[in-house]
Amino acid sequence: AISCGNIENGSVKPRFFFQRRKRTFECNAGYIAENDNNSIECTSSGWSPVPRCIPIQCGRIENGKIVDKVEEKTTFQCNHGYKSENGINETTCTSEGWSPVPICIGTGEKCGRPPTIKNGDITTLSLKEYVFGSSVEYKCQHYYIIQGERKSYCYNGNWTKPPVCLEPCVITQEDMRSHNIDLKWASAQKLYVSHGAFVEFKCRSSLSPNSSNNHRVQCNAGQIPYPQCT
């Protein structure tokens, strides 16, 4: 009788047996035979083919999460606004997938006041409570640019992500004086430039730019890269 050694994350019985006799190995709980092949032979050079037990992957639980795992049993919890379809919060990861399949369904809960956004507001009067499926629309203050979905929806007690208001750039005479520049196409004491918009500068009389970079620059969420002239 010969022995080919242990099988990682699995076992075969008995440990000692005659060479070239086909055996069947079993994987431990939570593992499965690679390629669904659990038939092997013990040869003079070891197991043939090499037995491999790989972890069973059952994937994520939609609208829920795993909170505990004890041996084969997995306990899951549905996200806020959702509940287990059958009232059971235990499942097992098998070679065929989750058993039983964990399903988290929406409870249809109402929502409280919608989320506020910086430099913006909703276009209608805010209520204390909203029914499932309701929506509110946002708008930004003057010169601010809205980014994202304009509407937020009440879904199972939660509001979907609201938009953000991107800040404009404020160009003042003081800022331009410190960089020795002027506006190329306009004359103003203060200029508001929306996010994403371009503005072009020129050097003040008898001055030259510090580099060959273009004096046409873009406003990015309240920040503008001023060119410098000396």
UniProtKB/TrEMBL annotation:
Presence of keyword NAD: no
Domain Sushi: from-to ranges: 2-55, 56-106, 109-167
Signal sequence, start to end: none
Pfam families: Sushi
Keyword Repeat recorded: no
The entry's keywords: Disulfide bond, Signal, Sushi
Record-linked SUPFAM superfamilies: Complement control module/SCR domain
SS bond list: C111-C154
PROSITE patterns: SUSHI
Subcellular compartments: Virion
Chief site of localization: virion
InterPro entries cross-referenced by the UniProt entry: ComplSys_Reg/VirEntry_Med, Sushi/SCR/CCP_sf, Sushi_SCR_CCP_dom
Gene3D superfamilies: Complement Module, domain 1
Name this polypeptide is given: Sushi domain-containing protein
Annotated source species: Terrapene triunguis
